[in-house]
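fold-stage: in
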Amino acid sequence: MKKIIAGVDEVGRGSLIGPVYAGAVILNKKINTKLLKD
């Protein structure tokens, strides 16, 4: 079985009623992470 790890982040400042947005990403192990910016 192949193991996959997903990085997830969400935003929705105190949103009891308002919208919440979430994003997820799965990258290839060979990617050069030095090129990524947060």
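fold-stage: in (second)
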Amino acid sequence: MITEDTARELALALPGAIEQDHHGFPSFRVNGRIFATLPQPDRLRAMLDEPEIRTAASEHPEACTEYYWGKRLACVEIDLAGTDAELVRDLLAQAWEHQAHR
């Protein structure tokens, strides 16, 4: 289990990462692009590409689920109570990489 504060620290430890409000909850951005959000204290959403989302959800079903925005697979949602810092750090790094070089 990790806390919202730990998730925030991990996100902000990535190069160039900043925190900004996104419709009333924290978002983490690099080069103006969102790579993760904290919509609830126990949920983190990491903006991966579709294959990475599916891989995370299948390899870590206890912590990760596919999250759809309408009919579009948008991100992986991570249950912070069901995971550890290593997995969150890895998924945040993937999301950061995906957005940093777009």
